[in-house]
Amino acid sequence: MVSGLPMTHSLPQIDSRHRRSVEPISTPDRLLLGPGPSNAHPTVLSALARTPIGHLDPLYVDLMGEVQELLRYAWQTDNRLTLPMSGTGSAAMEATLANTVEPGDRVLVAVKGYFGNRLADMAGRYRADVRVIEKPWGEAFTLDELDSALQHHKPAILAMVHAETSTGVCQPMEGVGDLCRKHDCLLLLDTVTSLGGVPLYLDEWKVDMAYSCSQKGLSCPPGLGPFTMGPRAEAKLAARKDKVPNWYLDVSLLNQYWGSDRVYHHTAPVNMNFGMREALRLLADEGLDNAWSRHRCNAEALWKGLESLGLEMHVPEALRLPTLTTVRIPDDVDGKAFSSYLLNTHGIEVGGGLGALAGKIWRVGLMGYNSTPENVNRLLNLFETELPRFREGSCVAA
Ligand SMILES: *Cc1c(COP(=O)(O)O)cnc(C)c1O
Questions:
Q1: What is the pTM for the complete model shown?
Q2: How many angstroms separate the CA atoms of 224 and 214, rounded?
Q3: Pocket residues for ligand 1 (CB within 6 Å)?
Q4: Which homologous superfamily does the CATH classification assign to the domain defined by 31-36+288-390?
Q5: Span 122-146, pLDDT tens digits
Q6: What is the largest CA-CA distance in the chain?
Q7: What pLDDT, on the 0 to 100 scale, is given for residue 5?
């Protein structure tokens, strides 16, 4: 005991109402073959577990530059303003709109699934004059449809989703950027489920803004939202009359940290960026071409296998996403019961449908680290041997 200090009984009593013995964390090893998150690569997990370093440490600053350069490669862009937003894909999604939309700006959203609607919702919150064109969930827009909508609405921004995770449709992008230049509007593209798994050529396609996430095609856990903005979008940002109405996502402030000045903005989630660097390093090491064809081959094997079991794909082959397959649930099957069984008995996650497709489809993701022939075979075997038990009238199902 230290003399001269008050005795402990003179201190306030500790409130022990919420104190209890809690077990250390324990989580199962699931195989995540749903719409995301996907499993992270083991070396990404090791990178995440490293001791943090300061977010202004010169070594960290070097790492930031590497992450930016690797992101430019993954997106095939030279955009100076390319960085991972601290937050999930939705944060980067919101950043594209927060930075470029001024009240009253017309934003045309091409909606063909759940995430198109989210773009329209966000644009409205930044007081855009939101216009929407829609296609049924499972289809894509043609150039003619986009051309006449641009002609009719004359928007400042056309926003659309490349890989619509809710439907499994890949929107063909050739020519869309040229249309946007012709109609003098910016092109904003959601590449959340395409980055790393589906051919993407941002500069060649003349995309002005794009965003993605860490947990789908990049084999990293959720937590970062890659963001990029080209010179035409930067010019719109520079010409704003008012401040960007979102402090956290203001790219002009963030660029003082990610650009050469290295001015503190918020404490970077350094370990997430360790993981992101490793995920992007793995992608660069494999090579984009190889990664894209791996996703394609494995998805084709899945489609063939499921079709040979009599199952139907929701999307015509020409528009199908290699990263996310939508499979129609047969009329006599309780789709939710089967996916619950896969999760609880085999530790495999497969997604269900959203919105208009709820109860009608399963969503099977083969993204990043998870796009392997072994995973395809494992899933196909389960569909073959176990699905029959979930058909109506089957006596084993209950
Ligand atoms: C997952 C997803 C998002 C949202 O990303 P989060 O990381 O969940 O915030 C946005 N768009 C599409 C197409 C997605 O699949």
A1: 0.94
A2: 5
A3: 36, 88-90, 93, 115, 161, 163, 165, 190, 192-193, 213, 222
A4: Aspartate Aminotransferase, domain 1 (3.90.1150.10)
A5: 999 999 999 999 999 999 999 999 9
A6: 86
A7: 56
